[in-house]
Amino acid sequence: KKVAVFASGSGSNFEAIAEAVGRGDLKAEIELLVCDKPKAKAIERAAGFNIPAFVFQPKDYDSKVAYEKEILGELKRREVDFIVLAGYMRLIGETLLSAYEGRIVNIHPSLLPAFPGKDAIGQAFDAGVKVTGVTIHFVDEGMDTGPIIDQEAVAIDREDTREQLQKKIQAVEHSLYPKTLAKLLT
Length: 186
Ligand code: GRF
Hints:
By secondary structure, this protein is α/β, with parallel strands linked by helices. The chain is built from six helices and seven strands. The chain has a seven-stranded mixed sheet with strand order 3-2-1-4-5-6-7, sandwiched between helices. 5-O-phosphono-beta-D-ribofuranosylamine binds at residues 7, 9-14, 86-87, 107-109, 173.
């Protein structure tokens, strides 16, 4: 399967997925990184794997429809058949949703439906819950909604700091996302 990964930030999940492809654990080709932040570290990581990047700034377009049409053109040109969101900090609009119905997945750092939206790790930490985790789900028009595919729990220990919790969650993300994609894409 030909995949595009969308990221806005560090791209550590992008890298974990690219490494899984490199090891042969995930039978897919990453055709493109799509990134809405010209300074994102994800872009450097893509270059390191020789994966092309389509970088854009929403403010250069009149509307979400306009930039998503352009993204769609890039995806079509490269015959991408699956979209993987990995820290892409925007809602997917109708243009991409209708073209890739049932073929867009996202990862979120909580056990959804708990703690949707921004800073889910901080939200869980501040709420004082003892268990949080990672969710992989299909994308619909909502924010972190859509059918759940996989979840893994992460315990919050009494002595954990916010930073330690973030590290634990990231470690789970980096192993779970490639594994779940391997199941979905075969
Ligand atoms: C991850 O925690 C992911 O769950 C969330 O955004 C973060 C992206 O991190 N949606 P990275 O850019 O992959 O390092």
